[in-house]
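Appendix B. Raw example, untouched.
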Amino acid sequence: MTALTRFVGTPLSAAIGWTLLHSFWEGALIAAFLAAVLALTRSPRARYAAACIALIVMLCGFAFTIAHLLPEQGTEPQTLQVQSHLPWPPALDNGNSTAWPNLQAIAPWLGPFWISGVWLICAFRLMNWFSVQRLRTRGVCSAPDHWQRELARLSAKLGVKRVAVLLESCLADVPILLGHFRPVILMPIGLLGGLPVAQVEAILLHELAHIRRRDYLVNLMQRLAEGLLFYHPAAWWISHVIRIEREKCCDDLVVSVTQNPHEYATALAALEHCRTSGREPAIAATGGHLMKRIHRLLFPAKQKTSWGVLVGIAVFLATGAACLAAWQ
C-alpha cells in the first residue's frame, strides 16, 4: 500500500489520471464526428477508413494529452501543469464542498487503475494469442491437393502475392485466417467436401481478401487500442464499426470477383448453420450481424436521403457543443 501511495503522489500518476478524464470528452467528440461520417456515406471502404482514422486519432490524442500534462524537465517533482486549474465541476456555493467530487484529488488515483487494467487486458490477449496460434499445429491436416491448387489460382486472380497454406482443422468451427507474413487458412473438417465448389471458392476468396487488405495487422492495432482505451465506450464502439465494415469490404471484393452474390450469401448461411447446428437456429429471426450481411448482399441498399445527413450533422454539433462546454 505504501508503494501505491508513493506512485499516486508522482506527477506521472496525476498526468495519467487527468489524461483519462480529458479522454472522455475527446473520445466523445471523435465518436460524434465518426457518427456524422457514417450517416453521410454508404461506402464500406469509406466508412472503414473513417473508423480506422478515428481510432488512430483517439490514440494520438491520448498520447498528446499525457505528454502535454507531464511536467517539463527541471520543474518541481510534485507539480503538474493541470494543478493550477480549478477542479471541475466546481463546488457548490452553499458551503457543502462534498456535493461534487474533487477531481484534483481523484485524478492521481486513476493512474494505478488504468495501469492495472492495461496489464490485465494485455495478459488476457497474450494468452488468447498463444491459444489461437496452437491451432496451426493441433488437430490439423493438409487440404487435398486440388484445393491447394485452387487456392493458388484464386490468389493469383485476386492479386494476393503471399502464399497461404490451406489446412483442415477439427478444432475450428468456422474458417480462420492466422498470420500475415506466413498466412494460414484453417477450414473446418468436412467443409471442403460438404459444400458446393462455388461456395467453397467464395469462402476462400473472403479469406484471401483479408490477406490482400492486411486486415490481420489492422486487427492487431485494434487490440492494442482496446487495451490502452479499455475504459472508454467510444473506443469499443469504433472498433466494432471497424470489424463490421471490414467484413463488408471483403464481401464486396468477393462479389466483384464471383459476380454471384446469391451463391456467396448461401455460403455464409451454410457456415452459420455448420457453426450452430444442434444448438440454435442458423439465423435468428431478429437478424444479427450475419443476417445484415446476407440481406445487404441480396438486396443492395440505395443511397439514403438527406435525413441521414441532417442526423449526422445534428449529432456532431450537439456532442461538440457539450464537449466544449465541459472543457470550459
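End of appendix B.
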